[in-house]
Amino acid sequence: MHIKPSPSRVVFNIINGILLTIVTLLGVIPFIHLLAVSLSSNSAAVAGQVSLWPVEFTWDAYIYLSQKVEFFRSLWVSVQRVFIGTILSMLLVILTAYPLSRETTVFKQRTAYVWFFVITMFFGGGLIPTYMVIRSTGLLDTIWALVIPGALNVWNMVMLLNFFRNTPKDLDEAALMDGAGHLSLLFRIYLPISLPAIATILLFTIIGHWNAWFDGILYMNSPDNYPLQTYLSTLISTSNRESISVDELASMASYGEKTLRTAQIFMGALPIMAVYPFLQQYFVKGITVGSVKG
Amino acid sequence: MNKRTFKQLIVGTLLLSLALSVIAGCASKPDASSDTGSKSIASDIGTDPMWKYPETVKVTQVIGHGKAEDPKTPSDITPATNAYYQKLKEMLNIEVEYLWMVPSDQYEQKFSLAVASGDLPDLMTIGFEQYEKFKDEDQLEDLSEAYEKYASPDLKAYVEADGGKTLDMFREDGKLLALPSFEDPFMSAQIMWLRKDWLEKLNLEVPKTLEDLEKVAEAFTTQDPDGNGKADTYGLALHKDLISWGFDARGFFYTMGAYPKAWIKDKDGNLVAGETKPETKAALERLNQWYSKGLLDKEFAFKDMDKVVEDIVAGKVGIAFGEWWYPGWPLNMNRDQDPNADWVAAVLPSFNGKEGETLVPSQRMSRIYVVRKGYEHPEAVIKMANFYTEMQKKEYAEDVKAENGYVYNWYDPRVYNPYDFEQAFTEVNAALDNKQEEIDSVNPTSVQAFKSSKKYLSGEGDNSDWGIYMRSIAKDGGWGITRTLRDKAYVVDEFYGTATETMTEKKTSLNKMTDELFTKIIMGSTPSSEFDKYVESWKKLGGQDITDEVNEWYKNK
Amino acid sequence: MSNTAQTQPATVVKPRSSKRVSTFPLHLMLIPGVIVTLIYAYGPMFGLVMAFQKYVPTKGFLGSKWVGFKNFEYIFHMPDFYQVLWNTLIIAVLKIIFGLLVPLILALLLQEVAKNWIVRTIQTSVFLPYFLSWTILAGVIFEIFSLNGPVNSLIASMGSDPIMFMGDKNWFRGILIGSDVWKGMGYNMILYLAAIIGINPNLYEAAEIDGAGRWKQVIHITLPGIAPIIVLLATLSLGSVLNAGFEQILLLYNPLVYESADVIDTLVYRMGLIDQQFSPAAAFGLFKSVVSVVLVSISYYMAYRFTNYRIF
């Protein structure tokens, strides 16, 4: 298709280039700005003099951050959460998706089960009843409150279910001929050929756990147990509190914290920004493998 | 597996989860329903205020907290390791366990979740509306026997310092449902604080009228009072909660004869809500002028109190309306940052030839302590209050210090002598006038204030000594100015009952509407003509009912 | 649910043959998922009875008084009700429309870029916000749109007055919608790109021979080629017109913009967790769930009719 471009084509290419450049920058510039602010002196940051390059460059915010126990403690909670939560979720999703990917002829109750799970995507008991159940099952204030209740992500399960269903059925036949059971069918045949889908779900699960914050606020009884994003949310929220007590007033002795706040937000985003470009292809592959977003 | 067993499986598990959720709903309220009358307290519990339990008694609490107030507190102290509680365990064998501890701005939702799931701690610190709800739902333990028998004489003296008026508010059918902690109502009186060094630098007087104040605010905004060559200062400190606790707009409103969110007497003797009066509208219009002139922080509506305190400490703002205690915090921190900084207190300026009259509440309630119904040891809570009072005495002064991990603002229940600051003022000033080296007082506030005053006046004190002196002792300082207001004209917030029925239900949303409109008028995004419409809808959406209820209460009180 | 199980007469489990494997292991594999779902998804649903009660925590669900539809009457008569409903709809619908259109345009533009590495770079950058939490993004948005933030510096340098984006009820909605599109556009863009790649290249060659320009090719080949996925995405989003984005709004809003940005979820949250109006909050939540389920059913039915797409 390499024909000499027409003049109008050249004009289009230029405009298109500019447009796409802007869009590209939109994705990145905010974070560069954040980084620049966090590396500037607090007075410059508060005065709004910082755009994309640090003003009165200083590592102060990061040095202070490196001594901030709360940050690292919640980072550790997040790491645990991602680790435990992901293993649990993947296990449940795979174990559930496989039986439900069997045809009705093989597994009669399949449809009933599917409805059983799918209904929960649209109907929920609401915040307070959920809290009560989590409390009465003894998960409150433990890491399990963050990983068990949502362990079976129905969307991911349906994605995987569909992927399993689209694998050629002659594989089953062959394996069953060999006298293999369902478990070995799942682990020896289905999992290996579903790696792209599994990888995508894995990544979404990891990201989901890393990014979740609201459950931390509801279910944790002490900031010591807040995951990182919950901790960060307490830094930035413009809190809708109604009244201020004497004690609160007395406690508000912090000042000069703008650069520290931005430094913490930047550090909260960093792990994902660092890893994501390398994993992007898996996401792209996974998304386009015939699944739709949830 | 055939379909029948499958169905059984489904039905069985559904039943299981039903059972679980019922448990979720009920498990948490152990004896509340079975416990009909008030049971009496075991007679073998010693009535000596500091009697030590032979076996550990556990009290659960919850807390929404910020940092420890005193910067000298060791950094690894948390509410759970607060030395007060260790001492409490040691002396009375009462063990406090926190069911949860969260940052203060998460407290509200955490508490609601606890209420919804019936997971209440034994001891709670609550507000009026919550008190009404708990009372109606019969969730509160009767404290009358515990209070009568176990409260120490000191504690009783404090709680009944007003002749029992406050305590009676919490009596219901012969039961005492709460232990209130209140303070001298004049501690809420409004004065104003100005940067003295800025005034001097710009050759300005302490303003006597609102017009003068406006000129000062303009000078502070435009004439570079901090001399750094940048236009980075502004006139009046303000934040998003216009009528709240400190650095807010109350002083400004009162100056102009407006008393929003207060119940004041009109000329016929009926109570009216101050936020609906024309004076409030006028004050809002005036604030809007100040806002457009740049005398207020353009973004005040997004800033909470810690942001405005930041500005004060960093020397960005030179005027703050508010209460008497500012020098103790945060003005002392401003002096830490800038050794030249100095502050002066003044009474509210006059407006249209009329002296500014501050509002004084009928009651200055600081905390309401209640005990969960069914808790076995209500007397332990009273003893905890005894303990706190005891710890303030001179003999413990060497031990009970922030450096040793004692964090008073994380300890509940604590009840103060409502008039200890007044007492300290007179005692310390008398001692200073007599050139005494020691003060002879049983009031811990006096002892501490005397020490700091001595240090400051001899020139060797630090800024926190300056703060204590300027706050409590100096005749032209915070309390020194405030106490003179007793002899001037002031307006009383006449309503001091617990929340009325409609208040409990509607007050939050009415307040929200009020805050929203006021902020918008000040910022100019809504014309002040909307005020009249607001008054109409305020009345319609429950305000009128509340007004009727409040007047009903007023007639019968 | 049980109807489906009854469609066939009960059969005695046949002795295992070489071809027929027992379904028992399948049930076994489902047990963990079923248990977790029963407890943590179905368990809380019993809490919905609250919506028909005057729920008093001490009395529990069994002891509280039944009030029928009183709570629903209460919420429908709340002064904020219609405002909040309208806010929810307008914010959600605009989010859906722009969330579909902007990535589409981007995908079409990106399609015209020849160099592969450029496409990759753009894609990476556009996709980035999708992976970050609203906590992080809210921090970024506050920073950028504050009065002395970079956007206002830019406005000031052009000689205009600074704008208080986060406190202005008109701007704020725009920020909600804009930031949502910004966060999500990478995802749909990739879906579109994949669909575009799936179009038979012969069609383009044929069009070129016929003398059709690039523009015509887009109109007549590319767009029809990806029409199914557009229709699919559009119908599927019907189910979320009452979801205006709880976390995003909760983190970003403030009382100044309640008028234009308070949505059902945030109001329910405040009613339940700030004002302790448990029953009305539950009623409002239930109202929303029911409407959502109806919409979701319609959308899935339509998706099936129009694009033959089935989610399971």
TrEMBL record, chain A:
InterPro entries attached to this UniProt entry: MetI-like, MetI-like_sf
The keyword Transmembrane helix is annotated on this UniProt entry: yes
Keywords: Cell membrane, Membrane, Transmembrane, Transmembrane helix, Transport
Domain ABC transmembrane type-1: residue ranges: 75-276
Gene Ontology CC: plasma membrane
Pfam family, one: BPD_transp_1
GO biological process: transmembrane transport
CDD domains reported in the protein's UniProt record: TM_PBP2 (cd06261)
Annotated localization: Cell membrane
Membrane-spanning segments: 12-36, 82-100, 112-131, 143-164, 185-210, 262-279
Entries under SUPFAM superfamilies matching the protein: MetI-like
Coiled-coil intervals: none
Source organism superkingdom: Bacteria
Membrane topology: Multi-pass membrane protein
Family (UniProt): Belongs to the binding-protein-dependent transport system permease family.
Protein's recorded name: Putative aldouronate transport system permease protein
From TrEMBL, chain B:
The protein's name: Carbohydrate ABC transporter substrate-binding protein, CUT1 family
Coiled coil: none
Keyword Glycoprotein recorded: no
Organism: Paenibacillus aquistagni
CDD domains: PBP2_AlgQ_like_1 (cd13580)
SUPFAM superfamilies: Periplasmic binding protein-like II
Keywords: Signal
Signal sequence region: 1-24
Automatic annotation (TrEMBL), chain C:
Primary localisation category: membrane
Ranges that cross the membrane: 24-43, 84-110, 122-145, 185-204, 225-246, 281-303
One Pfam family here: BPD_transp_1
Cell location: Cell membrane
SUPFAM superfamilies: MetI-like
Gene Ontology CC: plasma membrane
The entry's keywords: Cell membrane, Membrane, Transmembrane, Transmembrane helix, Transport
Superkingdom, taxonomy of origin: Bacteria
Gene3D superfamilies in alphabetical order: MetI-like
Membrane topology: Multi-pass membrane protein
GO biological process assignments: transmembrane transport
PANTHER family: BLL4140 PROTEIN
Family indicated by similarity: Belongs to the binding-protein-dependent transport system permease family.
Identification of the protein by name: Putative aldouronate transport system permease protein
